[in-house]
Amino acid sequence: MKGKRFCFEMGALSLLPLAIVFFFPPQEVDQSPLPRLLEAAAEYCRRFGNASLDYVCLEEITEVSYSPYRVVPWSPGNPVVLEIVNHFLYDYQLLKTGEKIQEKRILLEENGKKKHVPDAPLKVKRFPYHHIILGPMLVSEYWQPLHDYRIVGREKTVEESCLVLEAVPKQGVETDHLFGRIWVSERDDQFLKFEWNQKSIGNYEGIEKIAKKLRANPRMKLVMEYAYMKKGIRFPSKCVLSEEYVRKGARIIGSVTTVLYRDYKFFTVETKVDLKKGG
Fold first, then answer.
1. What is the CATH number of the domain that holds 256?
2. What is this structure's pTM?
3. Fewest CB atoms within 10 A around its CB: which of 1, 122, 155, 156?
4. For 66-122, what is each residue's pLDDT tens digit?
5. Based on the structure, what is the number of domains in the chain?
6. Residue 47 sits in which domain range?
7. Is the sign of the CA dihedral 211, 214, 216, 219 positive or negative?
8. What CA–CA distance (Å, rounded) separates 52 from 99?
């Protein structure tokens, strides 16, 4: 697939006794696995691009908004009062044939009340989204020449040892798409997690306007995890977007949206090799 995209910490200050502190230059990270990882990513995207998918799952959304935005001092255990909490449960279906992708939802529950609303709209208010399954397309053959990639470290996530890649658009490339950091399994070179750069999140200009009004710096965090796999295709398991603003030693909490995917039922997961692209 080409340039398709989908749409979308608190620390404690401590006083330390006087001590001698030694500073060491950061160690260089071994970049030798990078070509292998990028080729595996391109092959995955070719396979996904040619895949036919038909599946359903439960999509559980919890949206917490603070209105007006609540200022929380930098101190552990500080109580936070939730202002608005919305909870939605959908029966979610995705159909994919070639590059055509269609999402359908049946609303099953809204704020504790049972429902059954076919063809229901997504009721998320703060940060609407769609096509989360397309996250890995950032490393497709289309996008790779437009970004600089490097390995920035090694971490453990979802019970796997991962190499962490960073993707940054090359100078002069339009950035109307998500980019950021990618966690890749060292066991099988599969994508497990993405953390997107806050400036690549949709409507970032609006976020900057809010930050200016609050006289604060935005701290947006959008993390997506892909814990499920079927026939070599990764499927989303969790998405969290937190909206915060930092001002003079305090954080101003705006909203937190959490999306969980579970209870998958697969009707069609078919992949084929496109020989013209050397897959």
1. 2.50.20
2. 0.81
3. 156
4. 866 666 665 555 555 557 889 999 999 999 998 899 999 999 999 999 999 999 999
5. 1
6. 34-271
7. negative
8. 9
